[in-house]
Amino acid sequence: MIPGKGPAGVLTAAMAACPGESVANGTFLDVIGLVKTNLRTCRSWRQFARDLLACVTRVRPVFMVDYVHLRRDQVVTLLRAAASLTGVRLLALRFGDCCWFVANTAELGSMINTCVELGTFPQFIAFERVAGRGLLVPKVATTPEVQCIRDQLRSTCRCLASDLEASTSASVDAIDISSFCEDAFFPTLSGWLLGYPAVYVLLAPGLPAHDPQEVSRALSCAELVLFQCRVTCGALGENRPPVRKKEPHAHDPDVLLAFTVPSMVLSDGAAQAMTVSLEQAVADRICNAPYGVWGKATVSTEIKENVGVAL
Length: 311
What we know:
globular, 311 residues, 4-stranded mixed sheet, 3-stranded mixed sheet, alpha+beta, 8 helices
């Protein structure tokens, strides 16, 4: 598919070009050094460096920065410096004061085209109230609901494509996506951007809107299946800290991405199928990444109960 040539025509072909197709491994050490220097007082600098390398090498086209507070000028400065080292254009997406996303611009453009033109979507998890009790419970979205959610996501992606096109023309390094994404739709857009095979839906045409805090409370009482995709980043080398298992909230440096799915919406074999699909998708991206940066991808699942979920 050539961007800009399909029926939606949402992006130009130039945007899909990636000048940093082959980047020397030594350059990745420079990127790590860049992050370490700029975030030396932050305990999460290794996580940001790993996520940034994943973005540059297309292993993870988009990642969320919700584990460290960064000002707009800090984000832009880091991304510009990383782009100058690697030749890969990066873009910061901000949702109000909530969080930042960092995207590989070429990969984001491809994702948008796929969503708008081909209609590739994850599994949607909606919510409904228990009759007479008023409690929210998760459910698999029905076929009519899925169509509404797809239309909403396509519409949002067209707005994102317009801003992405404008940012490329004006050489802008950061855009605010809150202008075309309502708070209640943010979990859906966020899950799609991050490449999760299952995403939560709180708002879509024809569906009742749900408060994110109420949904978080409902999920905190549900049995959840935690999916974790682990990939060792060889470029970090000795900079990888040991995992302290005694600290339940300590970050595992090998976890590339993690998400939860309520066990009650997973049919027999669904978790295994989702695991295999995710593992293969990440493995395919690693095969196209520079040699020596990433190890083998493995996806594990674990049952979690009474876990708070940030939407």
